Amino acid sequence: MTTTIPLQLGDTLHHWRDCLETRIAHQLRIADSFLSAARLVKRGRPRIPLVAARNVVIDRNLWLSTLEIVRRLDLELSGRDGFVLGLPESWTERLGVSSYREAYKNERCRRRLASMISKRRRISTLL
After folding, report:
1. Is residue 84 classed as helix, strand or coil in its secondary structure?
2. How far is it, in rounded angstroms, from Cα 77 to Cα 88?
3. For residue range 10-20, what is the model confidence (pLDDT) as tens digits?
4. 3-state secondary structure of 37
5. CB 36 within 8 A of CB 45
């Protein structure tokens, strides 16, 4: 005697499996960014791990446009609660942005964000 799973239940199980796989992949990307950042801190580069994690994400995506890098920063450094790691406190406190996308839309932050990315591009050409 074999038991079969009703079609709706099977679809639901596949959906939940896909959701879990997506969440696990996201957590692994964050963990990988922090491990890479920890290596950079050990080499004497940025002293703040969150800045180092942000730099790792930028460095991995230097060939993309600034907007695409911004999207990657939000994707790879956002937590479950929506808190985005590595976002400068002055931007969140003074300018009220809570993600890199919001910072990109904000006139003052956009210039700073573009500058941050262009500095990483310049550094990568020197290495």
Report:
1. strand
2. 13
3. 566 666 666 66
4. helix
5. no
- Judge whether 101 and 74 are in contact, CB under 8 Å: yes
pTM for this predicted structure: 0.62
Residue 49: helix, strand or coil by DSSP? helix
pLDDT digits (tens, 9 = 90+) for 20-31: 666 666 666 666
Residues 30, 19: Cα–Cα separation, whole Å: 17
- Beta bridge partners of residue 78, listed in sequence order: 84
Phi, psi of 78 (to 5 degrees): -95, 140
pLDDT band at 92, cuts 50/70/90?
Answer: confident
Using CA atoms, how far residue 1 sits from 4, 6, 37, in Å, is 10, 16, 54
Rounded to a whole number, what is the distance in angstroms from the first to the last CA of the chain? 65
With CA atoms as reference, report the closest residue to 37 among 8, 68, 62, 60.
60
CA 3 to chain centre: 43
The mean pLDDT of 51-56, rounded to a whole number, is 84
Cα–Cα distance measured from residue 18 to residue 97, given in angstroms and rounded to the nearest whole number: 31
Amino acid at 102: E
